[in-house]
Structures
1.
Amino acid sequence: MSEDNFDRLKKCAVEVLGVDADKITKEAKFADDLDADSLDLVEFVMALEEEFDVTVEEEELEGVETIGAAYDLVVGKL
Amino acid sequence: MSDAITQTDQTATPNRVAFVTGGSRGIGLACALQLKADGFAVAVGSRSEPSELADGLLWVPLDVTDTDSVDAAFGTIEEQLGPVAVLVANAGITKDTLVLRMKEDDFTTVIDANLTGNFRVSKRAIRPMMKARWGRIILMSSVVGTMGQTGQANYSASKAGLVGLGRSLAREFASRNITVNLVAPGPIETDMLAEISDAAREAMVGAVPLGRVGTPADIAAAVSFLASDGASYITGATIPVDGGLGMGG
């Protein structure tokens, strides 16, 4: 089930961030590894909100620097 | 013009879509027709359906004070023409009266339509532009945004506010190759101008260095340029098209 969720997140990341699927690991950092800026991150989170039907508040994005952190944040709301 | 667009920008879709709000008459309609002549597929939005509309323009119902209406308008355009690449945010209203007689509602209604309305429209337009890594937003300001105008405290405030909105959008989305600029018309021959008295009109024309009222086509020419590839290095700018009325402002 959780693998499923990660695949869904991966799909969003590939689509929004325009990177190869194999670069999307839980350790991957948005800025350093994925070349994603703050606008990319907002777009990515908006895609996740749509995909998982959750709402993420602006403050919750504070300190979210890796794919894993974004995953935990979103999956924690399911 | 359309040849130039396809030749100089190979990543462009051959037929980019332009959306002009308040596009069924006056300045908006002139912009729509010019963009059509430039090779864009053009949609126009307005509250009520125009009794007649030039061939080749798609009309969509649009109330910029209603987020759902804005969303529906974009949805229809995306379905029928494709994602909007050029937004001309032109819809606006006036409720002129001296401040002492201006009800708070007269003020907030104009701000909601002219300023918040263009925020709603721009916000809805941005995501597809981000995806395309190409977009142009052109906001219709006014010379009175910087000069002020007796009887137009609400309208002037809304038009000045657009400059701040436009410049902020320009900064936020520059990295996505979206430019945001403003055009600031002076007195232009439209229904809006027809509402003022002959004396006020005469005084206004007297103050214009070029000594005449402008035409909607004068504004459309500036919009056409800002939408073209020739304007790709211009963002956050306000282009006055006012016969010199506001110069130095």
2.
Amino acid sequence: MAKVLEAFNIVRDYHIGGTLFGGGRTVHAVKGVSFSLEQGKTLAVVGESGSGKSTLARILTLIDRQTAGELKIDGEIVDIAKTGVTKAMRRKVQMVFQNPYGSLNPRQKIGDVLMEPLLLNTDMPAAERRERALDMLVKVGLQPEHFNRYPHMFSGGQRQRIAIARAIILRPSLLVLDEPVSALDLSVQAQILNLLADLQDEFGLTYVFISHDLSVVKYIADDVMVMYLGEAVEQGTRDKLFSSPEHPYTRALFAATPRADVESIKTRLAKKAALATT
Amino acid sequence: MPLLEVKNLTVSFDTSVGVFHAVKGIDLHVDAREVLAIVGESGSGKSVAMLAVMGLLPATATVKADKLSFDGRDLLNISDSDRRKIIGKDVAMIFQEPMTSLNPCFTVGFQIEEVLRFHLGMGKAQRRARAVELLEQVGIPNPAERLNAYPHQMSGGQNQRVMIAMAIACKPKLLIADEPTTALDVTIQKQILDLLVRLQAEHGMGLIMITHNIGVVAETADRVVVQYKGNKMEEAGVLELFTTPKSPYTRALLAALPENATGDRLPTITGFDFEEAR
């Protein structure tokens, strides 16, 4: 399989503060992360706030430039600090954000939301753009009559479907999803995860899935990368990582994840009963 | 006699498009030294029901109940000034977003001491000493120093600890925690949950955990109430709920957990009719 995404030693530093008289400091948000991802696969990036996972997402989606390191998308070297972002590059990478309420313009009709990426990045005629948008609405489980509605008329799950439709309407090779289900209810989460799986099968999409929820990661990922304070402390296939986590931070993460299986409830209740009698 | 007893509680809101029923006749009770989890998705009325108990709903809300009593006192026909003597003292509540529930203009020490001054009428030196002791109990290092910190100088997890310190300042008989860990990282979530459960056991409090997270239920609860669209779907011991869920809604909820995934796609919850589902 072709490698859609290759990253070598990606570094991102931010320079903060400083006054007329000097000072200021450098925050190393991402400290040399390397990975590669094959077409049609899902890489989950796991980490807590401050681990650099969202900074990494910004670099992968060409929103932010890397300070150092090499990024290859579809085999081509991408360095937006030197070349800027071309339309061809935009078409290759798209993103879905965490909060479906914040990522849609409240004054833009859904049809326009979906047609805008086509308008900006392709020279498709209007009639074709419209047809493509209607098509995409149905693909993500909405109705053609939703075309002329505004975002406030939709629920959180439906809005996330719209955000996904907007992201894949350009047929990108890489989709970066930053906590796409963490703002959603459990039942809606299941629907969106299913939708993502369906779309991956249909279009051969490659996902970088950023999450802090290990149960979701276990369900959706092929490969997992655990980030902590800007470093990739552990990476590997899902099965390997979940069966034998090696890094202490990964283990801490597993230990902290609430368990909803009957055995652990029994253990907890037994412990509690023992404490109560002593 | 239960610590908190609620019978046939209904809450409705007057809106411009008619009356909206958020809670439709719910019975529940909590005993002393018991952890009750109220679980449900957004719109299930789980928070609204508890805000009604606390008397914190806006004027547009109509609260009706056959019985609403706390520790033998009727909360339905209580005067506002009597209610203020109970709320924050014998019943305390902590909320989801610690950053927004603390006042950014005052130090955390001032905010903790305010509770002690108002409810217990403690003197200055006594308050300070008690505030230090409280911060120590909730696991904040250098408590005497941290009392002078403002909320923005602390992390989200630490702010939540401060909220918990405020809530337990007057040794309440009942603590209501509304999604206390939803805004926090998994590792911090674990610490906060452990802290709440430990304090609950040490102080012999009743604890109500409002959550949408099944894992949190499994990790903390003795007994569980499941809500859906303002109705109570099921009430059961925690082990019973996970081993033999009675309501189809609970079964669907458990099946939608990614860690329980058996096939390629997750089962989804669609259009539950309350009468049918019960």
3.
Amino acid sequence: MINTLSLSERRLGLVLSVLLAVLGLVMAAAARHGAMAVHGGMAMVLGVALAVKLAAALDDPLPAAGRASRYYDAPTRFGIVMTLIWAMIGMGAGVWVAALLYWPEATPLLPWTSFGRLRPVHTTGIIFGFGGNALIATSFFVVQRTSRTRLADSVSPWVVLLGFNLFCLWGVSGYLMGSTQSKEYAEAEWYADIWLVVVWVTYFILYLRTLARRHEPHIYVANWYYLAFILVVAMLHIVNNLALPVRLTTAESFPIWAGVQDAMVQWWYGHNAVAFFLTAGFLGMLYYFLPVRSGRPIWSYRLSILSFWGIVFFYIWVGSHHLHYTALPYWAQTLGMTFSVMLLVPSWASAGNAIATLNGAWHKVRDDATLRFMFVAAVFYGLSTFEGSFLAIRPVNSLSHYTDWTVGHVHSGTLGWVAMIIFGAIYTLVPQISGRETMASPRAVEWHFWLAVTGTLIYVVAMWNAGITQGLMWRAYDENGALSYSFIESVRAMAPYYLLRTIGGAMFLAGAVICALNCRATMRAAPIEAADRPLATQPAE
Amino acid sequence: MSDHHQREIDPVTGYDTTGHEWNGIKELNTPFPRIAIWALLITVVYAVIAWILLPAWPLGRDYTRGLLGLNQGDMAVAGYRDISDWRGEWLAKMETGDFEVLRADADLMATAMPAAERLFADNCAACHGETGQGGPGFPVLSDAHWLWGADPEAIAETIRFGINSGHPDARIAEMPAFDWMSREERAAVARYVSGLPEGRDGAGVAADLFAENCASCHGDGGEGGLEIGAPSLRDAAVIYGQDSRTVQETLRGGRAGTMPAWTDRLSEAEIRLLTLYVAGLAEAGGEGAE
């Protein structure tokens, strides 16, 4: 990656690396022990390693003179590698905790192996590590090509990617040490949250500057979605993580929100993490890679506009549907429920637009596993958004809430939609940035596709059954008005579904491992310089 | 939009494009499908109806109450009351009266015992085991040994207020630590106590130490039966184990196990129902053991 930087950029990188090392040293020295000290040590090691590499490479050959007229894909390549590494970590942790629910005694008596510490490793590893790296990597790829311009500068993409991955590493290693602020999907402690704000603002500015340099008169819709993702995630992250550290030298903090306000802010964040992290950004991915891969125009420009503004406007209201039948006032629940229902049509507009785009390219869907990943993603996007609106209706929620139906719903979205579109995007762009026509093994892509689809279906169907069974058992009364089942009976009834879930998840993980190996073989086959294509000639995809 | 662009017609759909292109991507100028507009309208109508009927929009310190006048607090209370009334048809009989009379009412028991089984599974089984089989540190309920007496009134009292639970009416049971004894003395007493179930209780230093320090709670020769929370040491009633090593640990550190008070979590009728269920476990298990 250093050989793509000019001398002044290498010097700037060196300064930033030294600053990171100093920051890490200060954190470690101030905290002395505990998670914050370990995290300071990690930052210091990363800063020193980068500084040594950059200092050693100051006199290396400079990049070719025509650099400015080529796309900058080295950060995308790095982001994809990190995406695949985090896929192994996050999905591996997921399969392990799924197995723990079936074999609860499998955990050795070590605190870090307990379910409670490993579960956030799975969620953070997948949402932020796997999903986040994929979003950043593809957003760099897409914004350059749809704007016919190079990234606005060559240092800040690395700040974003390295900084973001340091955040993810701080998060999951902190959970293993028992450090968490106990907010779901926002478990990382205050200093990591501040760090992410710095990284994210850098990302936002880089994205805006790149868009400002575009050579197209209009901004393509994919960039609108990516931009909504970047902007709103910053807003959600800052508001939900407002907290007062107990001391500046320890990881612990108190949230400034209390009681039901805290719950409301948390689920306003939590659901919009689904909306803007796991949906808006990935719709950006879909709106670029689906037409490129299928060679078809987007079916309806108008529908994509309706969908964009509908999603952006309605989603922000719906977080309260996570708090039905709680201390949250009824009126807030009603608003969450009704906006969830109104959200359905804009969501389906995108799913329908994607599927209608494939009209005229169905033979490609049949023959090309990569395009099939995107097709399945669009179908699962439609399915899980329908399910989401349905589950948000209060009486339905009274059956589904606190059951594994929620888990099934989430995984129909994350496995079926988010991961599938990521794999579709990876299989499209990895050969391209590696200067190849196809992946190293097209057969492996086919294997991956069927493992992923089968695994998802087994997982989701098992969890639907599990959740509805739980919900019905919990509310069943016998003819004398006594509960028909004790809680432990409903736990015992879950055994076959939990086993099936573990099997489905393991199949999905196996597919991801195949993907990672295939990408490794594809990337190794060519030097990254072949990736940079002249901006002037735009080959049809 | 940009009418000066030359519009291209897509051969598959017959629609023209918007005239823009991004890296080969074009967009068709397909109008809104009518079904999308109608579907959106239907969801909006649904939302507006819900807003009219239900509490919906905040108004500063108040909110729109909705025509149905629903209040989720009242609804929760009413729902709970309905279920309680339904169950109360038979459960109310458990509230008072003599346990023997209640137990003799076959109809009542046929209705009540399945409910008691679930109540036990939800509240008691976590410590005492699914069938009352107990576990290390938690007493067996399915045998004939009772630290506070087998009388249902005594069992109900324990369930109500617990043991060392912090409730003002709780039973207090503490085995003090005999850390002032020498290690040798503790070892001798432990050997003595561990032999009691097999009837080995000869005279000697250990027997003297036992008579001076232990018998006041555990009875002469560890006979027990005082029903003050101290087990007989001559049968299998000891919760923590009666091998020499465990007894030494008990002597060194003492014991003070806790059973929570249930009076604030279960109704009096439910507590008395559980009492009969637990007493029944003991009888069924006790017969099997004989």
4.
Amino acid sequence: MRLQNNKNLNQTKKIGFTFDGKKYYGLEGDTLASALLSNSVHLFGRSFKYHRPRGIISAGCEEPNGIVQLEVNEFTEPNRRATEVVLYEGLVAKSQNRWPSLNYDLGAINDLLSPFFPAGFYYKTFMWPPKFWKTYEYFIRRAAGLGHAPKKDDPHKYEHYHYHCDTLIVGSGVSGLYAAKIAAAKNLKVLLVEQEDQVGGAILSSNDYENKINTNSQTEWKKTILDELNNLQNVKIITSTTLFAYMHYNYLLAIQDLQPNIGKDKKNSVRQIIWKIRAKKVILATGSIERPLTFNNNDRPGIMLANSASKYLNGYGVNLGEKIVIFTNNDSAYQTAIDFHHNNIDITAVVDVRNNIEGDLPKIVKKLGIKIYSGSIISNTTGRRKIKTAHIKKINDNNVEIINCDLLCMSGGWSPTVHLFTQSRGKLKFRDEDSCFVPDQAHQKTISIGACNGTFDLKNILKETYTSVNDFLNEEEKILDGELYDAERINIGKQENAWIVNKENISKSKMFVDFQNDVTAKDIKTALSEGFRSIEHVKRYTTNGMATDQGKTSNVNALGIISELTGQDISHLGTTTFRLPYTPVTFGAMAGRFVKEFFDIERKTPMHSWHVNNNALFEDVGQWKRSWYYPKKNETMDEAVNREVKATRDSLGILDASTLGKIDLKGRDVSEFLNRIYTNAWSKLAVGKCRYGIMLGDDGMVIDDGVTTRLGDHHYLMTTTTGNAASVMSKLEDWLQTEWPELEVYLTSVTEQFGTISLNGPNSRKIVELLFPDQDFSSETFPHMSFKNLEIDKVSCRVMRISFTGEICYEINIPASYALSLWNKCIELGKNFNITPYGTEAMHVLRAEKGYIIVGQETDGSVTPVDLDMNWIVSKKKYDFIGKRALIRSDTVKEDRKQLVGILTVDPSIVLEEGSQLVEVETSLPMPMVGHITSSYYSPNLGRSIALALVKSGTKKKGVKLIVPTVNTSVEVEITNPVFIDPKNERLLA
Amino acid sequence: MLLINCPYCGEREQEEFTCGGEAHIERPKNPPDLSDDQWADYLFLRQNTKGLQYERWNHSFGCRQWFNVARNTATDEILAIYKIGEKPPPLESNEPLTPSGEPHIGSGNFSTSKK
């Protein structure tokens, strides 16, 4: 039965849902927590470490206990706070961390064993032997932990929205709504974000009899102001949206939960949205969070924060109990007593740690005839699955009065929600009179108003909001005249700290501080006695505040306890860091649409469809999809690659080389520019000629290589390796813009503008002769390393005779849209010559047979061109080029640097693993290593294995035998020249 | 995330930019005349200032232009933006203090005011 006051609900709409397999009903507007409580379900789960029965303690995002596994299978989500989950038809939730069931949980044995689980238990117990940690960890992780991650793909979608506004207001309580009204009146673009599904903040928990604004109840006031705002074009209000990150330059992230979109019929709908907000100014009106009191057995189901009890009572009409005790150290909990009275529910007792109780609210409670125990505490409670009794005693008196109780409302004071303020790098100060951290100095364009600024009473909240917001927004136009709203003044009595209730018993008691991680006051005492001093260390040792609720109810209490035990002021202790996210954010939301095929860009060449149709397997090179090899019918990879390699050497191979980076260089000073960025000389390169270049960093290490062609006097085309195209382009721009602005050089990336077909092999000339019948392709008129602009069907092509195989090779660059058609033509014309498409794997074998390096395979950022035995490409004449000075540093001229060599195994059938280490003699471990294998293949043309390696002083060690130790055996190898085929370039230049 | 005012395009999100490290390190004009130490100084050694630092930034996913940024690395405030080749504008203090008066060296990750 619901009580009459339930303003947050729609009485007429019943909603069915399931908790732990049992069907229940709630009303529209309920949270899962309020619906279960109204069904008298108080036991929500088992605690993390001791498996103690736990119930709801709060009514918001701070909830440490009431966390559930929401939904099932691919829709499931662990650790959802029942206090935030809005009820929808067919909702399925399960309690967590219990086995076999919530009522009978075998893990509860841990509670009896708790004396043996002190702070740092796992650190202390499972240290020895060190190797066994992996075994321990498996069982510990199984025993602990909360919910379960889904095992299947999430079928929902997640979105990212970008939003810009003048004023962002976080929180829609009294101050947030009022601020929105003021900002809107100034014609500003306003975004109001509310984490709950209903606007109102603390209004949702207030009763409508008292605390009026002007003459209206807060609910009526909210309705009026909300109607106004909803009619304005410049105000946007989003609910169920938690602001979880406040970053530089007023960049904030919020997550919106479109909760009812869960379930099979909603498969492709959007479940959550991340809002990426850039605001000119930010108004924080995030409210405050009530603190629990730390007393023995303060964690039983039925023990709840006082204001949260008010919310369930006033907002949701939940009848929480009949024998109600309130335990407090401040005035605010008296409001809860008054709220119960309005609902005709008697309060058995109010227990107040203070002797002097002077505020207005206690006076009202006294008048109502409710019994107040002043200067008293609750020393213990009983009741396994719900609280049964509370033990009341005077401070400094051992007489205990045991009273029956089925609901205990507690209040240990309030903590302003300063999380976002500190994330924005604002600094806090500690306010002694009510023991809370309040915003001090802001670092960005932001203000805090209302409870999050430590202003707790309605009259002052209204006043502060009016003045602060007007000052902060400081726009000339349309300033609201005068203060619009006022409320009655309520005198608040002084709060008294009671960080540890009944300190003498701390060692024998279970006073929970962090409910979710099961950290007790005793654990904190243990940490202190073991020498931990910094709050950050105590936090990590005890795990206080490290659960999914991030200590929203426990952090300040932990500080208070440390302060009380050590005698230090809280202001000196400081706080732990308030990290983002404020509440947990799902991976799905973070990933947004960037999943599966959208995870990264896939670049495909113009001939991609041909490769797919011809059974190519693909390899990712950077973002490019490159053909790896083209297996025929039952061929293995080795068979296919050997066939492709052999066919290319014997007759004709065709390679799609479109992915190589192509940079077009134009301008007066290109030759000079090339002189500076390549190791060799470029000034004398004739138009129509090509030259191979190696590019270094200024540290002398190889970063890229490729062939550059002089197309005209002031026009060159540079090729880069596939993977480095973008970084080379940006490095060249860097040099030009920042070091050599005097050079006139224009760079344009033309990688995607051309398709590149590479025809390799002794018969390649026959194909180009058929393609371009007017051109003489003899080596006399079209020699190796030269270029011609030719036409095919009136389409202009750039044809280079260059080679990465050691065979005669023509590379045809044709505008990309014609590339596939030309490729097909080549395949057709090549049929008589057994034209064989080959992929990157065969390309690697072919170049290794010829001893050509691949940057990134033979080099690793620590290799100079000298190390590669390529002295011939390093100009001695040039005064300077990038990397030159570094080549004569003491380290780069060392004799025993690793140098490129060929490696042949004594047993020609063994193909070494790439990355294998080379040693001179086998010794006990660790063996001194003299080098490593960089490339290793089976060469079908030589009928044996070949390898390239970097070996210390390798160039001088040709003929020397080395050993490659492998797991099972040791392989004997010999250092050779790295060129295995055609060392005299007879095939290349034919 | 920073909001960077590209001198060529205007204010854009940080994700469009790449930081190129400390600015105003000129590549020596006479490398062969330099000692190994002098070369290493140019090549490897950087200030890594906590406080005011002059940096190179590139609008890599925009106009691809390089420019200079004066940034307080302790607070992430951008104090000035100016083009390559220009001298840094005069800034009031060489070591702008952090909001809580954090130390000049170290993370100083304080959430409360230190006065």
